[in-house]
Amino acid sequence: MKRYNQGWIVLVGVLVTLTLPYSQAFWGNENKIKTAVFRSPKFVLGPGSVENRFYYNIDFPRGHIALKSFNGEVVDEAGNPVPLHETYLHHWVVARYYVRKGVELSEFINDHKNRSDYIYAGNSGICSNTLNQFFGLGSETRKTATHIPDPYGIEVGNPMEKPSGFEERWLLNVHAIDTRGVEDRLGCTECRCDLYNVTEDEFGRPLKPDYKGGLFCCYDHTQCRVKKGFEGVRRTLYLRYTVKWVDMDSLVLLVKVYIFDITDTWKRSSNSTGINAEHYCKVEYDVESCRASGLTENGCIDNKKISLDMPFGGYVIYGVAHQHSGGTGSALYSEDGRLLCSSIPTYGEGEEVGNEAGYIVGMSTCYPQPGTIKISEGETLILESNYSSISHHTGVMALFYLLVADQLPNPVHTLNTVVEAQDNIFLLTILWVAVVLMGVLSVIAVSIRYRLKHNRVDGYEAILM
Asked: Global pTM?
Protein backbone atom coordinates (compact mmCIF):
# COMPACT_ATOMS: atom_id res chain seq x y z
CA MET A 1 0.00 0.00 0.00
CA LYS A 2 2.86 2.34 0.79
CA ARG A 3 4.19 1.88 -2.76
CA TYR A 4 0.81 2.85 -4.23
CA ASN A 5 0.67 6.02 -2.12
CA GLN A 6 4.19 7.02 -3.17
CA GLY A 7 3.40 6.57 -6.85
CA TRP A 8 0.19 8.54 -6.53
CA ILE A 9 1.96 11.39 -4.75
CA VAL A 10 4.67 11.55 -7.43
CA LEU A 11 2.11 11.76 -10.25
CA VAL A 12 0.06 14.42 -8.49
CA GLY A 13 3.25 16.39 -7.82
CA VAL A 14 4.21 16.31 -11.49
CA LEU A 15 0.74 17.48 -12.53
CA VAL A 16 0.74 20.32 -10.04
CA THR A 17 4.16 21.43 -11.28
CA LEU A 18 2.94 21.35 -14.87
CA THR A 19 0.03 23.63 -14.05
CA LEU A 20 2.25 26.24 -12.36
CA PRO A 21 3.20 29.40 -14.26
CA TYR A 22 6.78 29.34 -15.55
CA SER A 23 7.94 31.85 -12.93
CA GLN A 24 6.53 29.80 -10.07
CA ALA A 25 7.92 26.57 -11.44
CA PHE A 26 11.44 27.94 -11.69
CA TRP A 27 11.66 30.19 -8.66
CA GLY A 28 9.65 27.97 -6.36
CA ASN A 29 7.42 30.83 -5.18
CA GLU A 30 6.67 34.45 -5.98
CA ASN A 31 7.97 35.63 -2.63
CA LYS A 32 11.45 35.86 -4.14
CA ILE A 33 10.36 38.85 -6.20
CA LYS A 34 10.58 42.04 -4.15
CA THR A 35 8.62 45.20 -4.90
CA ALA A 36 9.11 48.82 -3.88
CA VAL A 37 7.14 51.94 -4.84
CA PHE A 38 8.88 55.33 -4.88
CA ARG A 39 8.09 58.92 -5.87
CA SER A 40 10.34 61.28 -7.77
CA PRO A 41 11.09 64.73 -6.36
CA LYS A 42 8.07 66.95 -6.85
CA PHE A 43 7.62 69.18 -9.88
CA VAL A 44 5.08 71.97 -10.28
CA LEU A 45 3.24 72.57 -13.56
CA GLY A 46 0.73 75.14 -14.73
CA PRO A 47 -1.18 75.23 -18.02
CA GLY A 48 1.24 74.97 -20.93
CA SER A 49 4.37 74.56 -18.80
CA VAL A 50 7.07 71.93 -19.20
CA GLU A 51 9.10 69.77 -16.81
CA ASN A 52 12.22 68.12 -18.24
CA ARG A 53 14.73 67.50 -15.47
CA PHE A 54 17.31 64.93 -14.44
CA TYR A 55 17.03 63.79 -10.85
CA TYR A 56 20.19 62.26 -9.43
CA ASN A 57 20.59 59.73 -6.63
CA ILE A 58 16.93 58.75 -6.70
CA ASP A 59 15.44 56.16 -4.37
CA PHE A 60 16.27 52.75 -5.78
CA PRO A 61 16.83 49.20 -4.50
CA ARG A 62 20.41 48.66 -3.32
CA GLY A 63 22.68 45.66 -3.28
CA HIS A 64 23.63 42.98 -5.77
CA ILE A 65 20.28 42.35 -7.44
CA ALA A 66 18.59 41.45 -10.71
CA LEU A 67 15.97 43.91 -11.94
CA LYS A 68 12.67 42.38 -13.07
CA SER A 69 10.58 45.43 -14.07
CA PHE A 70 10.23 49.20 -13.81
CA ASN A 71 6.96 51.08 -14.33
CA GLY A 72 6.07 54.73 -13.83
CA GLU A 73 3.15 57.17 -14.06
CA VAL A 74 2.40 60.80 -13.21
CA VAL A 75 0.36 61.31 -10.03
CA ASP A 76 -0.81 64.31 -7.99
CA GLU A 77 -0.11 65.04 -4.33
CA ALA A 78 -2.92 62.71 -3.24
CA GLY A 79 -1.47 59.88 -5.32
CA ASN A 80 -4.20 60.04 -7.96
CA PRO A 81 -3.09 59.18 -11.52
CA VAL A 82 -3.19 62.19 -13.85
CA PRO A 83 -4.70 61.71 -17.35
CA LEU A 84 -2.60 62.35 -20.44
CA HIS A 85 -4.93 65.05 -21.74
CA GLU A 86 -4.00 67.11 -18.67
CA THR A 87 -0.33 66.23 -18.25
CA TYR A 88 1.29 64.53 -21.21
CA LEU A 89 4.14 62.19 -20.25
CA HIS A 90 6.52 62.69 -23.15
CA HIS A 91 8.97 60.24 -21.63
CA TRP A 92 10.70 58.98 -18.53
CA VAL A 93 14.01 57.15 -18.46
CA VAL A 94 16.05 55.60 -15.66
CA ALA A 95 19.81 55.17 -15.94
CA ARG A 96 22.74 54.12 -13.79
CA TYR A 97 25.97 55.93 -12.99
CA TYR A 98 28.91 55.74 -10.59
CA VAL A 99 29.91 58.75 -8.50
CA ARG A 100 32.97 59.26 -6.39
CA LYS A 101 32.26 58.82 -2.69
CA GLY A 102 31.51 62.11 -0.98
CA VAL A 103 30.60 63.91 -4.22
CA GLU A 104 27.09 65.16 -4.99
CA LEU A 105 26.22 65.90 -8.60
CA SER A 106 24.46 69.05 -9.72
CA GLU A 107 21.06 68.84 -11.39
CA PHE A 108 22.56 68.80 -14.86
CA ILE A 109 25.55 66.54 -15.17
CA ASN A 110 26.90 68.57 -18.12
CA ASP A 111 27.40 71.51 -15.77
CA HIS A 112 29.48 69.51 -13.32
CA LYS A 113 33.02 70.86 -13.27
CA ASN A 114 34.97 67.72 -12.45
CA ARG A 115 33.78 64.99 -14.78
CA SER A 116 36.26 62.56 -13.31
CA ASP A 117 33.91 62.31 -10.32
CA TYR A 118 31.26 60.38 -12.24
CA ILE A 119 31.09 57.54 -14.73
CA TYR A 120 28.08 56.62 -16.82
CA ALA A 121 27.22 52.93 -16.47
CA GLY A 122 24.61 52.59 -19.17
CA ASN A 123 23.14 49.72 -21.13
CA SER A 124 25.00 47.52 -23.60
CA GLY A 125 24.37 49.72 -26.66
CA ILE A 126 24.09 50.34 -29.45
CA CYS A 127 23.19 54.05 -29.22
CA SER A 128 25.70 54.80 -26.49
CA ASN A 129 25.96 58.47 -27.46
CA THR A 130 22.41 59.31 -26.36
CA LEU A 131 20.37 56.31 -25.20
CA ASN A 132 22.04 54.92 -22.07
CA GLN A 133 18.92 54.05 -20.07
CA PHE A 134 17.93 50.63 -18.76
CA PHE A 135 14.18 51.37 -18.87
CA GLY A 136 12.20 54.16 -20.51
CA LEU A 137 8.70 54.76 -21.84
CA GLY A 138 6.25 57.61 -22.43
CA SER A 139 2.49 57.99 -22.70
CA GLU A 140 2.22 54.20 -23.16
CA THR A 141 3.68 53.45 -19.74
CA ARG A 142 0.47 52.33 -17.98
CA LYS A 143 -0.34 49.53 -20.40
CA THR A 144 3.06 48.35 -21.55
CA ALA A 145 4.62 45.31 -19.91
CA THR A 146 8.21 45.70 -18.71
CA HIS A 147 8.42 42.41 -16.79
CA ILE A 148 11.48 40.30 -17.51
CA PRO A 149 10.48 36.61 -17.52
CA ASP A 150 12.11 34.10 -15.21
CA PRO A 151 14.80 32.99 -14.86
CA TYR A 152 16.19 36.20 -16.38
CA GLY A 153 17.10 39.57 -14.90
CA ILE A 154 19.25 42.68 -15.40
CA GLU A 155 22.21 42.49 -13.06
CA VAL A 156 23.10 45.65 -11.12
CA GLY A 157 25.02 46.36 -7.94
CA ASN A 158 27.79 43.87 -8.68
CA PRO A 159 30.62 44.90 -6.33
CA MET A 160 33.18 43.46 -8.75
CA GLU A 161 32.12 45.95 -11.45
CA LYS A 162 32.08 49.05 -9.28
CA PRO A 163 35.19 51.24 -9.71
CA SER A 164 37.27 51.64 -6.55
CA GLY A 165 36.22 54.67 -4.53
CA PHE A 166 32.87 55.03 -6.32
CA GLU A 167 29.25 54.32 -5.44
CA GLU A 168 26.47 53.11 -7.72
CA ARG A 169 23.61 55.58 -8.12
CA TRP A 170 20.55 55.97 -10.32
CA LEU A 171 19.09 58.97 -12.16
CA LEU A 172 15.60 59.66 -13.44
CA ASN A 173 14.68 61.96 -16.32
CA VAL A 174 11.03 63.08 -16.43
CA HIS A 175 9.67 65.04 -19.39
CA ALA A 176 6.07 66.14 -18.81
CA ILE A 177 3.96 68.79 -20.57
CA ASP A 178 0.86 70.38 -19.02
CA THR A 179 -1.66 70.68 -21.87
CA ARG A 180 -4.60 72.13 -19.94
CA GLY A 181 -6.04 75.05 -21.90
CA VAL A 182 -3.45 75.04 -24.68
CA GLU A 183 -4.31 76.20 -28.21
CA ASP A 184 -3.05 73.07 -29.93
CA ARG A 185 -2.74 70.01 -27.70
CA LEU A 186 -1.07 67.77 -30.31
CA GLY A 187 1.25 70.58 -31.37
CA CYS A 188 2.34 71.09 -27.75
CA THR A 189 3.00 67.38 -27.18
CA GLU A 190 4.99 67.28 -30.44
CA CYS A 191 7.00 70.30 -29.24
CA ARG A 192 6.33 72.55 -32.24
CA CYS A 193 8.72 75.47 -31.93
CA ASP A 194 6.21 78.14 -33.02
CA LEU A 195 3.82 77.18 -30.20
CA TYR A 196 6.65 77.52 -27.68
CA ASN A 197 8.02 80.71 -29.26
CA VAL A 198 11.48 79.18 -29.15
CA THR A 199 14.35 80.00 -31.53
CA GLU A 200 17.26 78.83 -29.34
CA ASP A 201 17.95 75.59 -27.50
CA GLU A 202 18.34 75.43 -23.71
CA PHE A 203 22.03 76.35 -23.98
CA GLY A 204 21.32 79.48 -26.01
CA ARG A 205 22.40 78.08 -29.36
CA PRO A 206 20.30 79.16 -32.38
CA LEU A 207 18.12 76.46 -33.87
CA LYS A 208 18.54 75.49 -37.51
CA PRO A 209 15.99 77.19 -39.82
CA ASP A 210 14.49 73.84 -40.87
CA TYR A 211 14.02 72.63 -37.27
CA LYS A 212 10.26 72.85 -36.75
CA GLY A 213 9.77 70.91 -33.56
CA GLY A 214 11.19 68.44 -31.10
CA LEU A 215 13.14 68.23 -27.86
CA PHE A 216 15.12 71.40 -28.54
CA CYS A 217 11.89 73.44 -28.33
CA CYS A 218 10.22 71.96 -25.22
CA TYR A 219 13.02 71.88 -22.69
CA ASP A 220 12.60 72.55 -18.97
CA HIS A 221 10.60 75.68 -18.06
CA THR A 222 9.46 76.44 -21.62
CA GLN A 223 5.82 77.44 -22.14
CA CYS A 224 3.38 76.24 -24.79
CA ARG A 225 0.80 78.75 -25.98
CA VAL A 226 -2.43 78.78 -23.95
CA LYS A 227 -5.84 79.94 -25.12
CA LYS A 228 -6.50 83.58 -24.41
CA GLY A 229 -8.29 84.05 -21.09
CA PHE A 230 -7.72 80.51 -19.86
CA GLU A 231 -6.75 80.27 -16.22
CA GLY A 232 -5.69 77.17 -14.39
CA VAL A 233 -4.02 76.42 -11.09
CA ARG A 234 -0.45 75.28 -10.80
CA ARG A 235 -0.23 71.87 -9.17
CA THR A 236 2.38 69.63 -7.64
CA LEU A 237 3.02 66.35 -9.41
CA TYR A 238 5.33 63.35 -9.11
CA LEU A 239 6.42 60.38 -11.14
CA ARG A 240 5.47 57.37 -9.09
CA TYR A 241 7.59 54.40 -10.05
CA THR A 242 7.45 50.75 -9.10
CA VAL A 243 10.56 48.58 -9.15
CA LYS A 244 10.63 44.79 -8.92
CA TRP A 245 13.77 42.73 -8.38
CA VAL A 246 15.27 39.56 -6.96
CA ASP A 247 18.50 39.02 -5.08
CA MET A 248 21.26 37.76 -7.33
CA ASP A 249 22.03 34.05 -7.12
CA SER A 250 23.16 31.23 -9.38
CA LEU A 251 19.62 30.66 -10.68
CA VAL A 252 19.40 34.08 -12.34
CA LEU A 253 20.38 34.22 -16.01
CA LEU A 254 21.57 37.65 -17.09
CA VAL A 255 20.16 39.73 -19.93
CA LYS A 256 21.74 42.75 -21.62
CA VAL A 257 19.76 45.83 -22.64
CA TYR A 258 20.10 47.10 -26.21
CA ILE A 259 18.28 50.05 -27.76
CA PHE A 260 17.94 50.57 -31.50
CA ASP A 261 16.92 53.88 -33.09
CA ILE A 262 15.47 54.41 -36.55
CA THR A 263 17.51 57.65 -36.83
CA ASP A 264 20.83 55.82 -36.35
CA THR A 265 23.27 57.15 -38.97
CA TRP A 266 25.47 54.04 -38.99
CA LYS A 267 26.43 52.88 -42.47
CA ARG A 268 28.06 49.63 -43.50
CA SER A 269 31.52 50.06 -44.99
CA SER A 270 34.57 47.92 -45.67
CA ASN A 271 36.15 48.88 -42.34
CA SER A 272 33.04 49.13 -40.17
CA THR A 273 32.59 46.73 -37.28
CA GLY A 274 29.17 47.73 -35.96
CA ILE A 275 30.57 48.61 -32.55
CA ASN A 276 28.79 51.17 -30.37
CA ALA A 277 31.24 53.97 -31.15
CA GLU A 278 30.22 53.91 -34.82
CA HIS A 279 26.56 54.60 -34.08
CA TYR A 280 25.11 58.09 -33.82
CA CYS A 281 21.41 58.16 -32.91
CA LYS A 282 19.50 61.41 -33.38
CA VAL A 283 16.53 60.08 -31.34
CA GLU A 284 13.83 62.11 -33.12
CA TYR A 285 12.65 62.97 -36.63
CA ASP A 286 9.75 64.58 -38.50
CA VAL A 287 7.00 62.96 -40.56
CA GLU A 288 5.93 64.98 -43.59
CA SER A 289 2.28 65.14 -44.56
CA CYS A 290 1.46 62.89 -47.52
CA ARG A 291 -0.81 65.61 -48.91
CA ALA A 292 1.99 68.16 -48.84
CA SER A 293 4.48 65.76 -50.42
CA GLY A 294 1.99 64.27 -52.88
CA LEU A 295 2.88 60.75 -51.75
CA THR A 296 -0.59 59.36 -51.18
CA GLU A 297 -0.21 56.10 -53.09
CA ASN A 298 1.31 54.44 -50.01
CA GLY A 299 -1.88 54.93 -48.00
CA CYS A 300 -0.37 57.91 -46.23
CA ILE A 301 2.01 55.76 -44.19
CA ASP A 302 5.52 57.04 -43.55
CA ASN A 303 7.77 53.98 -43.62
CA LYS A 304 11.37 54.06 -42.50
CA LYS A 305 13.86 51.19 -42.48
CA ILE A 306 17.49 50.88 -41.50
CA SER A 307 19.93 47.96 -41.58
CA LEU A 308 22.25 47.35 -38.64
CA ASP A 309 25.08 44.83 -38.24
CA MET A 310 24.91 43.38 -34.76
CA PRO A 311 28.08 43.74 -32.63
CA PHE A 312 26.67 41.10 -30.28
CA GLY A 313 24.90 37.75 -30.28
CA GLY A 314 22.44 35.93 -28.04
CA TYR A 315 18.85 34.88 -27.47
CA VAL A 316 16.02 37.43 -27.60
CA ILE A 317 14.05 37.41 -24.34
CA TYR A 318 11.95 40.59 -24.63
CA GLY A 319 11.26 43.40 -27.08
CA VAL A 320 9.17 46.57 -27.23
CA ALA A 321 9.05 49.76 -29.31
CA HIS A 322 8.54 53.37 -28.28
CA GLN A 323 6.52 55.62 -30.60
CA HIS A 324 4.58 58.87 -30.36
CA SER A 325 1.07 59.79 -31.46
CA GLY A 326 0.67 58.90 -35.13
CA GLY A 327 2.77 55.76 -34.78
CA THR A 328 1.28 52.60 -36.26
CA GLY A 329 3.92 50.09 -35.22
CA SER A 330 7.53 49.03 -35.37
CA ALA A 331 9.23 45.72 -36.11
CA LEU A 332 12.61 44.02 -36.18
CA TYR A 333 13.46 41.59 -38.99
CA SER A 334 16.32 39.31 -39.93
CA GLU A 335 18.05 40.06 -43.21
CA ASP A 336 16.05 37.33 -44.98
CA GLY A 337 12.79 39.02 -43.92
CA ARG A 338 11.93 36.76 -40.99
CA LEU A 339 9.99 38.68 -38.33
CA LEU A 340 11.83 38.65 -35.03
CA CYS A 341 9.61 40.97 -33.01
CA SER A 342 6.84 43.50 -33.67
CA SER A 343 5.39 46.11 -31.34
CA ILE A 344 2.02 47.73 -32.09
CA PRO A 345 0.49 50.74 -30.30
CA THR A 346 -2.89 50.80 -28.58
CA TYR A 347 -4.76 54.12 -28.76
CA GLY A 348 -7.13 55.29 -26.08
CA GLU A 349 -10.81 55.88 -26.82
CA GLY A 350 -12.16 57.72 -23.78
CA GLU A 351 -11.42 60.28 -21.10
CA GLU A 352 -10.45 58.08 -18.16
CA VAL A 353 -6.89 57.45 -17.04
CA GLY A 354 -5.26 54.75 -19.17
CA ASN A 355 -7.74 55.15 -22.03
CA GLU A 356 -7.22 58.74 -23.16
CA ALA A 357 -8.54 59.26 -26.70
CA GLY A 358 -5.93 60.08 -29.32
CA TYR A 359 -2.95 59.04 -27.21
CA ILE A 360 -0.84 55.91 -27.35
CA VAL A 361 -1.71 54.21 -24.06
CA GLY A 362 0.15 50.95 -24.57
CA MET A 363 2.62 49.09 -26.78
CA SER A 364 2.51 45.37 -27.43
CA THR A 365 5.59 43.40 -26.39
CA CYS A 366 7.49 40.30 -27.52
CA TYR A 367 8.18 37.38 -25.20
CA PRO A 368 9.62 34.65 -27.47
CA GLN A 369 9.85 31.13 -26.15
CA PRO A 370 13.44 30.78 -24.88
CA GLY A 371 15.75 29.67 -27.67
CA THR A 372 13.37 30.35 -30.56
CA ILE A 373 14.97 33.64 -31.66
CA LYS A 374 18.74 33.82 -31.75
CA ILE A 375 20.85 36.69 -33.04
CA SER A 376 24.37 35.94 -34.23
CA GLU A 377 27.24 38.37 -33.83
CA GLY A 378 27.71 40.21 -37.11
CA GLU A 379 24.19 39.36 -38.31
CA THR A 380 22.32 42.11 -40.16
CA LEU A 381 18.97 43.13 -38.71
CA ILE A 382 16.39 45.47 -40.21
CA LEU A 383 14.49 47.93 -38.03
CA GLU A 384 11.23 49.30 -39.43
CA SER A 385 8.99 52.10 -38.13
CA ASN A 386 5.62 53.22 -39.49
CA TYR A 387 3.77 56.46 -38.82
CA SER A 388 0.57 57.86 -40.24
CA SER A 389 1.42 60.75 -42.56
CA ILE A 390 -2.11 62.09 -42.98
CA SER A 391 -0.86 65.11 -41.06
CA HIS A 392 2.57 66.54 -40.30
CA HIS A 393 4.32 65.33 -37.13
CA THR A 394 7.38 66.81 -35.44
CA GLY A 395 9.79 65.28 -32.96
CA VAL A 396 8.52 61.71 -33.25
CA MET A 397 10.56 58.75 -32.01
CA ALA A 398 11.04 55.15 -33.07
CA LEU A 399 13.14 53.31 -30.51
CA PHE A 400 13.28 49.56 -30.02
CA TYR A 401 14.29 47.96 -26.72
CA LEU A 402 15.71 44.45 -26.89
CA LEU A 403 16.77 42.20 -24.00
CA VAL A 404 19.26 39.53 -25.02
CA ALA A 405 20.64 36.61 -23.01
CA ASP A 406 23.90 34.78 -23.62
CA GLN A 407 22.54 31.47 -22.42
CA LEU A 408 19.33 29.51 -21.99
CA PRO A 409 18.06 27.69 -18.91
CA ASN A 410 19.74 24.33 -18.40
CA PRO A 411 17.66 21.86 -20.46
CA VAL A 412 18.37 19.03 -18.02
CA HIS A 413 17.08 21.01 -15.06
CA THR A 414 14.24 18.88 -13.66
CA LEU A 415 11.74 21.68 -13.26
CA ASN A 416 12.65 23.24 -16.56
CA THR A 417 12.15 19.90 -18.31
CA VAL A 418 8.72 19.65 -16.73
CA VAL A 419 7.88 23.20 -17.77
CA GLU A 420 8.79 22.45 -21.38
CA ALA A 421 5.90 19.95 -21.37
CA GLN A 422 3.46 22.46 -19.89
CA ASP A 423 1.57 23.03 -23.12
CA ASN A 424 1.40 19.37 -24.08
CA ILE A 425 -2.30 18.68 -23.54
CA PHE A 426 -1.97 15.08 -24.58
CA LEU A 427 0.63 14.43 -21.90
CA LEU A 428 -1.55 16.10 -19.29
CA THR A 429 -4.49 13.96 -20.30
CA ILE A 430 -2.45 10.75 -20.03
CA LEU A 431 -1.13 11.75 -16.63
CA TRP A 432 -4.57 12.61 -15.29
CA VAL A 433 -5.88 9.24 -16.51
CA ALA A 434 -2.94 7.60 -14.73
CA VAL A 435 -3.84 9.44 -11.54
CA VAL A 436 -7.45 8.24 -11.77
CA LEU A 437 -6.36 4.66 -12.39
CA MET A 438 -3.89 4.84 -9.51
CA GLY A 439 -6.67 6.14 -7.30
CA VAL A 440 -8.95 3.26 -8.31
CA LEU A 441 -6.19 0.74 -7.70
CA SER A 442 -5.51 2.26 -4.30
CA VAL A 443 -9.18 1.95 -3.34
CA ILE A 444 -9.24 -1.68 -4.53
CA ALA A 445 -6.06 -2.43 -2.61
CA VAL A 446 -7.45 -0.93 0.56
CA SER A 447 -10.68 -2.92 0.10
CA ILE A 448 -8.85 -6.22 -0.46
CA ARG A 449 -6.57 -5.63 2.48
CA TYR A 450 -9.52 -4.89 4.69
CA ARG A 451 -11.35 -8.04 3.55
CA LEU A 452 -8.28 -10.22 4.04
CA LYS A 453 -7.75 -8.82 7.48
CA HIS A 454 -11.41 -9.43 8.30
CA ASN A 455 -11.21 -13.00 6.98
CA ARG A 456 -8.12 -13.66 9.09
CA VAL A 457 -10.00 -12.50 12.14
CA ASP A 458 -12.79 -15.01 11.25
CA GLY A 459 -10.27 -17.91 11.08
CA TYR A 460 -9.58 -18.00 7.34
CA GLU A 461 -6.00 -18.07 6.08
CA ALA A 462 -4.89 -15.22 3.82
CA ILE A 463 -4.13 -16.19 0.22
CA LEU A 464 -2.15 -12.99 -0.59
CA MET A 465 1.64 -13.50 -0.42
From this structure: 0.81
